Amino acid sequence: MIQLLFTVIFSEMTFILMLIFKNPLRKLVIMGMDRAKRGRGPIVVKTVGGTVFVVLMSSVYSMMKIQKRSIDEGTVSPTDQVLMAKHLLEATLMGSFLFLGLMIDRMHHYIRELSIRRKSMEAVKKQNRVFEDGKVEESKALEEELITLRSKFKQMESELEEKEKQVNASEANAVALKNQSEGFLLEYDRLLEENQNLRNQLKALDSSSKKNT
Predict the structure, then answer these.
(1) C-alpha distances in Å from residue 198, one per residue of 23, 169, 194
(2) What is the pLDDT of residues 76-88, one digit of tens each?
(3) What is the model's pLDDT at position 76?
(4) For the chain, which has fewer Cβ within 10 Å, the N-terminal or C-terminal residue?
């Protein structure tokens, strides 16, 4: 049993070293432990651990009995010394076995949790990158739209200036036509007045010629 415990303890130490340091077998060990924790694996581990714990308590109880007997007798026989050393070695090995098994379980748990957190962090970083890329694309689209609006605004300003020039030219033409029409009206009035004067003169000449005859 002692040789078996030594073998198991060295195996556990090897597992711990493979979990602590990066190596090609680390992923295989983690995958094997993941599979071992599924189905009946936990029940088997708990059963083995419980059995070893019971045997450990039995060795501790045997050591306590030997120590009590030696105290009562006042002397320790060579047989009791050998049994005491044997039980102490077995208890130490079984305690180390249970402790190392617990360490392996906790290390596997923390490695898996760390891996999950790293994956979640990578997913968050990826989402942030996608969000930032989307922001960059959106900002580029807004910049292009702003440039388009500016060009349209400049075009509208130029069209407005041309229309203002046309309106000013039309107003100037209207003023010129108004002034010209006013001049025509004045000239027409003058001509009417001259025509009336000529008619009056003609009438006067007619009347004077009739008197002379």
Answers:
(1) 132, 43, 6
(2) 678 878 888 888 8
(3) 67
(4) C
